[in-house]
Write a structure and sequence with these properties.
The complex is a heterodimer. By secondary structure, chain A is α/β, with parallel strands linked by helices. In chain A, helix 9 packs across helix 26 and helix 16 crosses helix 17. The relative contact order of chain B is 0.20. Classes of the chains: A alpha/beta, B mainly alpha.
Chain lengths: ~950, ~80
C-alpha cells in the first residue's frame, strides 16, 4: 500500500479569483495575492497562521469568533483578518502584546462554557478549539460559569434548561450540542457548500444554538441530506462521524476515488492499520472540490457486510446448491465448461459483460478476454442500458461521445437546461455546485415529467419547468429548435464557421415546418407552447447556455434522436467550445465513461474505433498475437435473444446484475436459464447469480489499484487501502480465467495494463501511473498534442471537423396508453440509494429509503381508491408487481413514478423490451401501466423470492 | 411489441432504424440504414434479416428493402 498523505492546509477563506495582484506586508514579509483575498488568507499563503475558529476556506468569511484579530498600521482598532480584504501597501501585524491579550481573553470565554473532557473527547487530537487554546497560550480560566450549555444539571442540582442531549438519529454522525461553540461553520457549509439549508442558528445571544430546522426536528427528520459538509466543517466534536467515536482518530490516509456515481469524487480514505476509519472528501479533487454526498462519504459499509462472498463457488446446474471450492478448482471448472461450449457451438457462442463499476484496467482485460481468448467481439457493458445513445448521438453530430466540459465549467454558466436528469438525487455533488451558481443568478430550465428537487428547493426556482408527457422528448427538443430558428435566435457566425452551413439550411427547413412548432406539439407533450418559446429564447439569448442531461433522455425508443437534438441546440446557439456552455451527459456509474473508452462495446476496440478497420485491428493483433474478428459482436439484448434461440451459451459477467437492472426481467431470466455456463463475478450473490454456474468473488474499490474515468473524462486513481478480502483484485481474477483458457497473460500490476492501453489508444497515449501521481488526475484526450489533458472539447473545431446537423423527426413510441393501461410509468433514483442497491441496501442508507414506492397524482389515486401508503398492483403488458403508493403532485395526472433500488419490487418485471432504434438502449422511462389497490406482493414476486432463496443455497462444508 | 414469428423483433428493429432514416433525403437514408446495420448488427442478426429479405421482406418498411443491396450478407462460416 502506498501511503499518500497530502496535508490539507486550511487557508481560512476561499481563494479570490481576481487577476489583479496586490502586494502588502504581513509581519515584515512582502506578500502578493489576488485582489479580494482576505488578510487571513494572504498571511496563510506567506506561511503565517493567524489563530481562527469560525473561518475555514470552504465557506465565506463570517467574522464572529474574534480570534483572528490583527493590527494594521494607520487603521484604528483590531479588525478580523478573515473579513478584511488586502489592499496595496498595507502593513499588517498578526502578533503583538495587545493581540495576544485579546485572543487569550476570547479563548477564556469560549472555554468557560466548554466541557474540559479533552482526553476522552472523540475529537481529541483533531480539535481546533484545543489547537487554538494551545496557540494563544491559554493557561488559566478565570471564570467559573454559572450558566452553561454543557452541564446536564446546574450547580444547584436542578435540570439545566440550556442543556440539549446528543442527537444520534443520523446513522453516520452525531450532533452533540454540549461541545458546540456556535461558530456557524456547519450552518454555512450546509448553505454554501451543499445548498440544502437544513441547519440554522436558533435563538439569540447566549441562547443561540445550532438546530436542524425546527426545534422538534432531529438530524434524521430534518431536510438534512447527510452529505457530511457540516461534519467536515465542524472544528470541535459537536458534529462528528460515529466511526471516529467508535474507532478513534486515523493514522494515515490514501487518496482514492469514490465508486458510486459518474461525478467521480476524490476522497481521502483515512485509515488506522487496515481498518477504514472514515472517508473524507479531498479538497484538491477536481471533480468535487472538497464536497461529498451521503453515499461516497458514509455508505461504504457494504465492503465488510456479512453477505459478501469471499470464496469461489461452482455448481453443475442452477438447481443445485452452491459448492465452495478453491480458486484453482473454480478456474479449472470454468475453463473446462467454456472450452466445451466453444468446441460444440463455435467461438461466437460465448461472450462477456464488462463492469462500469470496475476500473478501466479491469474493463480492458474483460474485453480483451473475449476478443483475444474467446476470439469474438461479444462484449457489452451496462452503458448499453444507460448512455449508449449518447455515444451514438454525440458521435454523429460532434464526432465524439464525450461530454464537452469539466465540472468547473458550471461556475461560468448563465443558463442551464437540465433534461431528464435529477442531479440532486443522482449526481448530488455536481448538483451542489450547480445550485451554488444558480443562487448567484444563473437561470434554470428543467425538462422533466416530474417536479424534481432542482425545480424548486430553498433559494432555487427554475424559470421554466417543461413537465412533458414521458416519451415526447424529441418533440420538445425539436420545438425548442423550431423557435430558435424561426425567431432568428441562432448564432449564424458560429454555424458558418464551425458547422456545415448547407446542412444547417436543410435542418432549418426541417425544424421550421409547422408540425414542429411548440403550438403543434402542445397536445402531444402537454407543455404550453408559450413556455417552450420562452425557454428557447432564454437559452438562445441568455449568455453562456449549458445543457446537462441524463437517462431521461437516453432510455427511450428515440433516445439517440434526442441526443442528436440536444447537440443541434448547442451548435445552433454557439454554445460549445468554451467555459460555461456545452453538452454534458451526466453518467450514472462511476466508470461508465471508462468502460466505454476501454472498448466494451461489441462494435469497437478501445478508443471508439470500429472493429471493421484493418488499421485498428492491426495495432491490437500485433500486441495480442491473435487475429481479431472484423464483425460486430452481440449487444446485451441480442445476447439474451440469441441465448433463448440457442446459439449463445456462455457468459462471463463482471460486476453487473443484469437480471435486476435490465428490462423485461422474464426475458432476461429465460435467456440466462438457457445458457450452459453463466459466470458471475461480483461482491454478492446478486439476482443474476440465481442463474449462474460459477460465482467468482469480487473485490471492492478499497482493495485494488486502478483508475476510474468520470463524466468529465477525468482519469482518477483508485488506490488500494487494504488487501482484497476475497484474495484477488478483480483484474487478477480475469487474468486467472484467461490463463486457465490458455492465454498466458503476465500482468503483475494494473499500471502495466494502463501502459498497454496508452500504447494502443491515441486518446490515452500520455497516460501512465507516474504521471497521475504528479498531476493527480487528467482529462482525456491526453497525448502529445495535449500533454496536460483536455478540460474542454471542440475548442477550435469539432472533433469530426464540421459540426453536423441531423434531422430529428419525432416518432411516437409504440408503448402507448389505452383502456387497459391508461397511465405512463417512468422510473428514476433517489439520493440515498444507488442503482439496483447492491451496495447501498447493505448500509445504513436504508433508513432513508427501505423500499421502492409508487408516486401517483392525487387525482389518479382518488379515482382508484388508493390511499397513502397502501399496497397497489402495478401492471403492464410485460408483467405485474406490487408496491406501496405515495400520493404526490410531483407527477402530473396520468403519470406514475417509482425507483428500482430494491429487488423485491422487481420494477423491471413491468418494463417492456422496446428500445432505442440506434443502440437498443431499453425504454425504461415509458411504460403504459394500470394501478389498482392490492393486498400485498404479487404471485411473481412470491415465486421469485422462493426461487432466489433456493438458488442461493450454499452446501455445508464437508 | 408483437412477438409473432421468430423474426418479428428483428423486423421491428429494422423498421425503427428506417423511421429515423426516412427523414433524410432518400439516397442518404439508404446509406444511413445499410451502414447502421452493417456496423452494429452481429452476423447472426443480419443472417436472420436476410432470411426475411430472401422470403420477400414481408413486414419491412420500403426503405429497408431499398437499402437491402447495401446490407452485407454474412458469410456462412461466421
Amino acid at each position: 500500500m502506498k501511503d499518500f498523505i497530502i496535508p490539507d492546509r486550511d487557508f481560512g477563506t476561499p481563494a479570490a479569483k481576481s487577476k489583479q495582484l496586490v502586494t502588502l506586508t504581513i509581519d515584515g514579509f512582502d506578500v502578493t495575492v489576488p485582489e479580494g483575498t482576505s488578510i487571513m488568507r494572504a498571511a496563510a499563503e506567506a506561511g503565517i497562521s493567524v489563530p481562527k475558529l469560525c473561518a475555514t476556506d470552504s465557506v465565506d468569511a463570517f467574522g464572529s469568533c474574534r480570534l483572528c484579530l490583527v493590527e494594521i498600521e494607520g487603521r484604528n482598532g483590531t479588525p478580523a483578518s478573515c473579513t478584511t480584504p488586502v489592499a496595496p501597501g498595507l502593513k499588517v501585524h498578526t502578533q503583538n502584546a495587545k493581540l495576544k491579550q485579546l485572543r487569550r481573553g476570547v479563548m477564556e470565554l469560549y472555554i468557560s462554557d466548554h466541557p474540559l473532557d479533552c482526553l476522552t473527547c472523540s475529537a481529541n487530537g483533531d480539535c481546533e478549539l484545543q489547537d487554538m487554546a494551545g496557540a494563544v497560550g491559554l493557561r488559566d480560566v478565570r471564570y467559573e460559569a454559572v450558566q452553561t450549555h454543557f452541564k446536564a444539571k446546574d450547580n444547584s442540582g436542578h435540570i439545566n434548561p440550556s442543556y440539549i442531549p446528543r442527537d444520534d438519529s443520523n446513522p453516520y454522525f452525531s450532533y452533540d450540542p454540549q461541545k458546540c461553540i456556535v461558530c456557524s461553520r456547519c450552518v454555512r457549509a450546509c448553505e454554501e457548500v451543499q445548498g440544502t439549508f437544513a441547519l440554522t442558528i436558533e435563538g439569540r445571544g447566549f441562547d443561540s444554538r445550532v438546530s436542524f430546522g425546527a426545534k422538534t426536528d432531529t438530524a434524521l427528520t430534518s431536510d438534512c441530506v447527510s452529505c457530511g459538509a457540516c461534519v467536515a466543517a465542524c472544528p470541535t466534536a459537536t458534529l462528528q462521524e460515529k466511526s471516529i467515536i467508535e474507532i478513534g482518530t486515523p493514522s494515515h490516509s490514501v487518496i482514492t476515488t469514490c465508486a458510486y456515481c459518474g461525478v467521480g469524487c476524490s476522497f481521502k480514505a483515512e485509515m488506522r492499520g487496515d481498518e477504514l476509519v472514515r472517508m473524507t472528501p479531498y479538497k484538491h479533487g477536481k471533480a468535487n472540490r472538497g464536497h461529498s454526498c451521503v453515499k461516497g462519504r458514509f455508505a461504504y459499509g457494504y465492503a465488510s457486510h456479512k453477505d459478501r462472498i469471499l470464496s469461489p463457488m461452482i455448481r453443475d446446474s442452477i438447481n443445485d446448491a452452491w459448492k465452495e471450492v478453491s480458486w484453482d478448482e473454480a478456474m479449472a471448472f470454468t475453463a473446462n465448461r467454456m472450452k466445451g461450449i466453444i468446441d460444440k457451438h463455435g467461438r461466437h457462442s460465448v461472450g462477456v459483460i464488462t463492469s462500469s463499476r470496475c476500473t478501466n484496467e479491469e474493463a480492458y482485460l474483460v474485453q480483451k478476454l473475449t476478443r483475444a481468448v474467446f476470439m469474438n467481439n461479444n462484449t457489452d457493458t451496462c452503458a448499453r442500458v444507460c448512455h449508449s445513445p449518447t455515444g451514438y448521438g454525440l458521435g454523429q453530430t460532434l464526432g465524439t461521445s464525450a461530454g464537452t466540459q469539466d465540472f468547473d465549467s458550471v461556475e461560468q454558466t448563465d443558463v442551464v437546461i437540465i433534461i431528464g436528469a435529477n442531479p440532486t438525487d443522482g449526481h448530488p455533488v455536481f448538483a451542489s455546485r450547480l445550485k451554488k451558481r444558480l443562487r448567484k443568478g444563473a437561470k434554470l430550465i428543467v425538462v422533466d415529467p416530474r417536479r424534481t428537487d432542482i425545480v424548486e428547493s430553498p433559494h432555487i426556482k427554475a424559470q421554466h419547468h417543461l413537465a412533458l408527457t414521458p416519451g415526447t422528448n424529441v418533440a420538445i427538443v425539436t420545438a425548442l429548435a423550431h423557435t430558435i430558428v424561426t425567431e432568428g435566435l441562432f448564432d449564424e457566425a458560429f454555424i458558418r464557421e464551425r458547422c456545415d452551413w448547407d446542412e444547417f439550411q436543410d435542418y432549418a427547413e426541417f425544424v421550421s415546418q409547422p408540425q414542429n412548432s411548440p403550438e403543434a406539439v402542445q397536445l402531444l407533450t402537454g407543455v404550453a407552447a408559450e413556455e417552450v418559446r420562452a425557454a428557447a429564447r432564454l437559452y438562445a439569448l441568455g449568455g453562456n447556455g449549458s445543457i446537462y442531461y441524463g437517462l431521461g433522455v437516453t432510455e427511450h425508443s428515440q433516445g439517440s434522436t434526442t441526443v442528436i437534438g440536444i447537440a443541434n441546440l448547442a451548435m445552433m446557439t454557439g454554445n460549445i467550445g468554451r467555459p460555461g456552455v456545452g453538452v454534458n451527459p451526466l453518467r450514472g456509474q462511476n466508470n461508465v465513461q471508462g468502460s466505454c473508452d476501454m472498448g466494451s462495446f461489441p462494435h469497437e476496440l478501445p478508443g471508439y474505433r470500429h472493429v471493421k478497420g484493418q488499421a485498428v485491428r492491426d495495432i491490437f493483433e500485433k500486441i495480442w498475437g491473435v487475429k481479431i474478428d472484423d464483425e460486430p459482436g452481440l449487444r446485451i439484448p441480442n445476447m439474451l435473444d440469441a441465448a433463448v434461440e440457442g446459439t449463445f451459451k456462455g457468459l462471463y459477467c463482471q460486476g453487473e446484475d443484469i437480471l435486476q437492472s435490465d428490462p423485461d426481467t422474464k426475458h432476461v431470466a429465460a435467456g440466462l436459464a438457457a445458457m450452459d455456463c453463466v459466470i458471475v463475478h461480483d461482491l454478492f450473490l446478486n439476482e443474476t447469480a440465481n442463474y449462474a454456474h460459477v460465482f467468482l468473488p469480487g473485490s471492492t474499490f478499497l482493495e485494488k489499484d486502478g483508475t476510474f474515468t468520470n463524466a468529465e473524462r477525468r482519469i482518477n486513481r483508485v488506490r488500494k487501502v487494504m488487501a482484497p478480502r476475497n484474495g484477488y483484485a478483480d483484474w487478477e481474477v480475469t487474468q486467472l480465467l484467461a490463463n486457465a483458457m490458455g492465454a498466458g497473460w503476465t500482468y503483475t500490476h494494473p499500471s502495466q495494463i494502463m501502459d498497454e492501453i496508452a500504447m494502443t489508444t491515441p486518446s490515452f497515449a500520455g497516460v501512465n501511473y507516474e504521471m497521475l501521481e504528479v498531476k493527480g488526475s487528467v482529462q482525456w484526450p491526453c497525448n502529445e498534442a495535449s500533454p496536460d489533458g483536455t478540460p474542454l472539447m471542440h475548442v477550435d473545431g469539432f472533433v469530426r471537423g464540421k459540426g453536423k446537423f441531423i434531422n430529428t423527426e419525432y416518432v411516437a413510441t409504440d408503448e402507448k396508453t389505452g383502456p387497459r393501461f391508461p397511465l405512463l410509468l417512468t422510473t428514476g433514483r433517489i439520493l440515498s440509494q444507488y442503482n439496483v442497491g447492491a451496495q447501498t441496501r447493505r448500509t445504513s442508507n436504508v433508513v432513508w429509503h427501505d423500499q421502492d414506492v409508487l408516486e401517483i397524482h392525487p387525482h389518479d389515486a382518488d379515482n382508484r381508491g388508493i390511499k397513502e401508503g397502501s399496497w397497489v398492483r402495478l401492471a403492464s403488458r410485460a408483467g405485474e408487481t406490487s408496491l406501496r403508493a405515495t400520493i404526490t403532485d410531483r407527477v402530473n395526472p396520468g403519470v406514475v413514478y417509482t425507483t428500482f433500488h430494491h429487488p423485491d419490487t422487481q420494477a423491471n418485471v413491468i418494463t417492456t423490451d422496446f428500445s432505442d432504434w440506434a443502440t437498443n438502449c431499453p425504454e425504461y422511462k415509458v411504460t403504459a401501466v394500470q394501478v389498482a389497490p392490492s393486498n400485498g406482493p404479487s404471485e411473481w414476486q412470491e415465486g421469485y423470492s422462493a426461487h432466489a432463496a433456493l438458488s442461493r443455497r450454499i452446501a455445508a462444508a464437508e | 411489441m408483437s412477438h409473432d414469428g421468430p423474426h418479428a423483433k428483428l423486423i421491428y428493429m429494422a423498421n425503427q432504424i428506417a423511421k429515423f432514416m426516412e427523414s433524410k433525403p432518400h439516397d442518404q437514408g439508404i446509406e444511413g440504414l445499410s451502414s447502421h446495420i452493417n456496423d452494429f448488427w452481429e452476423p447472426r442478426m443480419r443472417r436472420q434479416l436476410y432470411e426475411v429479405l430472401d422470403a420477400g421482406g414481408a413486414g419491412l418498411r420500403p426503405l429497408v428493402l431499398d437499402a437491402a443491396a447495401l446490407i452485407r450478407r454474412p458469410s456462412i462460416a461466421a
